Amino acid sequence: MNRAYVRKRALFGKTRPRKSVGLTDYWGSRKTIKRIQVYFKPQIKSVRVEFDLRPRFLRHFEVEDPYDFHKLAQLLPRRHVLFARVDEQKLLRQLKNMGFSSGEIQAIKKEVRCRDHDLWATLKYLRSIGMKNVRRVLCFLRLNALIQEALAEWASQWPRSPRRLQTEKQCTNFGM
């Protein structure tokens, strides 16, 4: 995976892509409730997708302390991070249902292919022609299941409640 692939296939909720700065791609601004940055990290020799979830985001989804981090494993996949591509068959079916002529459909398919490098721009274009539920034409990628598994494993490492402190009787005396 590289930065171009993330731009081509990723959606981060309603967060819009922003102008790239150097070798980093951004979604969201400094004042939004979440900001995503995508960059190559040489130490791990891989592309890193980094979420900055702001306090307003965490409050909105009732993540109030570290014991609530397990909620993020259910919240983030599909709703706030989704990898997909436009399925041409679903798109064709949807355009026919919307009443477009075959000539208009061909022109729309050409415009969609021109925007294939940026999924967000493609979906924005489909909304501009009157398509209401643009996710209907998406084909979700296997990468989403891998993300969900990784988040579930990460969430399992966080305690769900504070652990009790040991009492004096339980403590061992190390030569004191």
Describe this protein's structure.
This protein is α+β, with helices and mostly antiparallel strands and 176 residues long. The protein has one domain (3-156). It is built from seven helices and six strands, in the order αββββααβαααβα. It has helices spanning 3-9, 55-60, 70-75, 88-97, 102-114, 119-128, 143-156; strands at residues 10-11, 24-27, 34-41, 46-53, 82-86, 138-140. It has a three-stranded antiparallel beta sheet with strand order 1-5-6. The protein is elongated. The chain starts with a helix and ends in a 20-residue tail after the last helix.
Secondary structure: elements and pairs:
Elements (H helix, E strand, L loop, with lengths): L2 H7 E2 L12 E4 L6 E8 L4 E8 L1 H6 L9 H6 L6 E5 L1 H10 L4 H13 L4 H10 L9 E3 L2 H14 L20
Antiparallel strand pairs: 1-5, 2-3, 3-4, 5-6
Give the count of structural domains: 1
Per DSSP E runs of 2 or more residues, the count of β-strands stands at: 6
Mean pLDDT value? 87
Q: Helices and strands: which structural class?
A: alpha+beta
Radius of gyration: 22 Å
Q: Percent helix among the residues?
A: 25-40%
> Major beta sheet, specifics?
3 strands, antiparallel
Shape by Cα distribution: elongated
Query: Which stretches of 5+ consecutive residues score pLDDT under 50?
Result: none
Q: Which percent range describes the beta-strand content?
A: 15-25%
Distance between the termini: 56 Å
Strand arrangement, largest sheet? Answer: 1-5-6
Instruction: Please give the count of helices.
Output: 7
Give me the strand/helix succession: HEEEEHHEHHHEH
